[in-house]
Amino acid sequence: MRIACVQDQLSRGLATVGRAVSSRTTMPVLGHVLLATDGERLRLAATNLELGITTWISARVLEEGRATVPARLLAEFVNSLPSGKDVSIDGGTRGAPLHLSCDRISANVKGMDPDEFPPLATGDDRPAVRIPSREFRTMIDQVAFSAARDESRPVLGGVNVKVSGAQLTLAAADGFRLSIRHARLDHGLPEPLDIIIPARALTELGRLLGGDDDDVELSVTGNRTQVLFRVRTADGETVLVSRLLEGQFPDLQRVIPKTATTEMTISRSELATAIKIASIFARDAANVVRLDLQPGDEGGVTPGTLEITATAPDVGDNKSQMPAGITGDETHISFSAEFLSDVLGVLKSDRIHLKLTGPLSPAVIEGVGVEDYTHVIMPMHSVR
Amino acid sequence: MGRIRQLDAEVIARIAAGEVVERPASVVKELAENSIDAGARSITIEINRGGFGLIRVRDDGVGIAPQDLPLALARHATSKLDDADDLYAVRTLGFRGEALSSIGAVAQVELVSRPPDREGGWVHRVEGGITTHDGASASPPGTTVSVANLFFNTPARLAFQRSHGAEARAIAQIVTHLALAAPTIRWQLVIDGHQSLSTPGDGSFVEAAIAVYGAVVAPHLLTLPLIDETAVRVTGICTSPVVHRNTRAYTTFVVNGRVVRSQALTHAVEEAYHALLPTGRHPIASVRIDVPPAEVDVNIHPTKLEIRLQRERLVYARVRDAVRQAVGRFTPSPVIHPSVPSWPLNSPSHTPTPPKTGTWGLRPTPLLDDPNADQGAEPIGLVSGSPPGGEASPRERSGSAWSEVLAASQDAGIVRPSPTASPGPGTTPKPPGPVARPASDPASWRPLGQVGLTYIVVESPDGMYLIDQHSAHERIVYEQLKRAPTADETLVQPLLNPDPIELTPSQSTWLRTNGPSLQSFGYDLEPFGTGTGTETWLLRAVPRTVATRGRARAVADLLDALIDREYGDGPIEDQTRWAVACHSAVRAGDSLTMTEMVSLMEQLSRCDLRQTCPHGRPTMIHLSHTQLAREFGR
Asked: Pick from A133, A99, A102: which is nearest to A8 by CA?
């Protein structure tokens, strides 16, 4: 292989695929990055076998070939090279050292046989869904955090992605809370799609999604075992491929309460601040905050009052009071402070709705005027 | 007439009986050993009313010829010994010729026997040493001895006997030991009409151990490496350090086929496990030792339970090495430290069972874009799968012997909190040894990071600490649970949609009886349906402390631990509190954020006994500035 490319592009490409480099030592090749010529481009790829990222940068290809070299070493070296200069790369065939030179700096990097690098899917002609990058990134932010972090039910560690007609739905639940987000698509798929993607893969995808005008394409490989995201940006093209989780995702719609006995409308930022203060004390008391909702009078002349308390037996306690539009029954309910903070952090609207049905039933949180996102949290209660 | 006179034969017989026949269990032992000596392939033992009603031992051994039957019941009559020289090379279990006659002196004994080569059997009955019947009888090949109304003629002895239940337990224990000692024999024990033990008799130590100790220990059984040197042969099984019991009754020694009690050998096994087990806990082990018969003196106690070994130190070392190798294969000890020898990289976490690739274990799909994906799937499954099962899990890779750390800490003067706290709820640790200093307040400590996702490295004003994240969190949860009844509430986090959990029949049974005690700690489970071999339950709520960690796995492990009585025999609430603490605590292998580590330190600082976990294992190791300086030669 003999090529030349620009330092900035190479550096950015290595950073992109670096997210998929594995730190496990059981398969050394997974700590490596694959460099391969691909027409008039250089293809960079890395995988941890759960997730793979491939990206292309423009290059002058003098001689075709492939090489596999340690990812971190190469990235660190390339990052330190002078910006804007050409980097010429040659060697690497059948595990021979890769020779890099830039300006008056050169290096030889020993690698592995590129044939050992696992083959990665980079796309086929399967039908794809096209979603604006920015919107998809918001969807991921609003849903992926609700996925389970433990492995007791693997499907719950994933995000359920459905395409039905022109509607795209992302849903996740860890057993204690759930998030569902809908979006309209310009074009749907010929047949409905219902897959479970590991939350971590989507979080990584979110990092790759940036620009306003960019799109991301989602497709499923022929054997329906992997999902493939193609991200096109001004800089070039990146493909992220992830395994799919097998299994049946629970029907979350069934769990969302349809009615409420107490409804509250409140400023998102005020509530978030109060929860943040309460969690200083809550973290020493199983992370519990208590919300006391006192409705206003019938005509709505005086608003209701929300009181937030956290009590840690050995530490102390804290109380915040704020006016809030509360209708329905007076209610006292306890939540995990972490769960509340998480959802308040991803809601976009200034004012939010909290819908409750007594202290033991799931609570619904939505943005005021927002119909495409629903979050549900199960409250806590005491044994006695 | 003089005051001293010769006692009559009957009195002498009863006195002798007193030595051998202490209690029903000793009758069972003597009779079963006779059956083993008779070359039986199958031995069935029935008892009623703790053996006071009836003891019947039936075997398919060589049998006794009719003319020998009366002699068998006579004192010092035996087929096992010819002359005094034989006494020093005893290969049979019995030899004194005392057992049957002694039993015959204090009970109603019926002996029915037929050598396999004869047409019919013969029966001989004795009551209080006097023959009451002798005649032909139908009989299967082998010998059946029935002992009824034991101690009917020695009311004083009868008065000092323990309850029927206690005696039945003692008999079960003896038969258990014999079954482990002679795995080639099919053992059956029937207590009051219920079969309580049945072994396959296929010669396998492992099968025998599973039959005796239940399938729960099966995944943890380790076969001892065969050691056969200098005329000492050691074989057997032991368990991995994650399984342990609160008595030594689960350690069995068999010397030349004889079950023996030996403090020295027990110590040898425990030394092999040293500090891999929590304080006060004992391994399950069954060790068979074969030495030349001339080297064993079994004739030092009438019950032959105690023996003398000529090369005891050598045998001791062999047993210790065999067990240590078996345990070591299970927990290889990676060792690195320049001047402190054998510093453990990983140390055992005592979460009792390894993660199960449970019913939820979905097979991960391969990522490779490979037409032959089936072949490619295997190694990928290993890295992308759900909890690591089998050998590779960090917990099992775990640890090295604490003993080495202990030795090292003495050498290097590492201050270690006392690990000697007695286990059990509400325990207080023994005062720390002379080298231990009170730890500074963890709230002022600064966590630096995790080692092997198991230990937290902490900087403190007085040097550094290594904290076992599982033990430390276990202590925290345990104390929180203990405080809960006095604090205003125990918090429950219900689930939005319940998790279905597959439980085994024994787990389900336990849960039906003891469900309420789990519920008071925040677990809410209800039966849902039966599957093939398992039962489905719905997990509706969990204690707040486990809300974020593997809840389904924790429930199954928790139930197993409670069924196994790993947390002692105290009130069920104590056991449950302990088990919940252990199973809801952060595990070795869990990745912790810096915030979580800081919070752990803060909570640890509020614990009353922060230096040990509820099992008595240390939660932290301290390295002072002075020690660090000395280690680096500054």
From this structure: A102
